Amino acid sequence: SQQGEEDPQALSIQEGENATMNCSYKTSINNLQWYRQNSGRGLVHLILIRSNEREKHSGRLRVTLDTSKKSSSLLITASRAADTASYFCAGDNQGGKLIFGQGTELSVKP
Amino acid sequence: NAGVTQTPKFQVLKTGQSMTLQCAQDMNHNSMYWYRQDPGMGLRLIYYSASEGTTDKGEVPNGYNVSRLNKREFSLRLESAAPSQTSVYFCASSEATNIGGYTFGSGTRLTVV
Q1: What is the predicted pLDDT for the residue at A1?
Q2: Which member of A31, A92, A101 has the closest CB to residue B42?
Q3: Which DSSP state fits A66?
């Protein structure tokens, strides 16, 4: 069973717009992580937010975490064509295993 | 600095054949993982090794075995391949479980016919 479920499954925007992806998870977590996967490649770690944090920033990325609602969001500001990829959230549960959601496919049109 | 290296990158097997997927990391990470990725399913954990000398089952371990050969290497074996094991397999490592992000290899695309 997936830990995270992402919404939307696919998102298409114009370059310069902001992209928001949401993730809901099922069980208690130590931290929640976001990854990017370009087509045909491995996953790349973007950002980690711990269960006692509410918001975190890294460059053009902003992640929020609401443990009461078991949800997280990833905001990419001023998107670029190079941001086109699949984005996955993953919950690090108390068993020490990272469980992934099904991902959001982001397409940024020039 | 290579990170996580997986071999082979592509493989075609006949049903019933066996093979071992190799994974090595050069970051002195303690924990290593094997995932499979299928369309629309995200990544599912097959097995993981929290530290050298230990292995544990993930979500979908049936049909697979693993060996943590040493701190660097973690192999995944398919003893009798089935078409349902057609997938892209990713190896990953982390400093330890519950600490930090994972570093992923570039994947092995396996087709079982």
Answers
A1: 46
A2: A101
A3: E
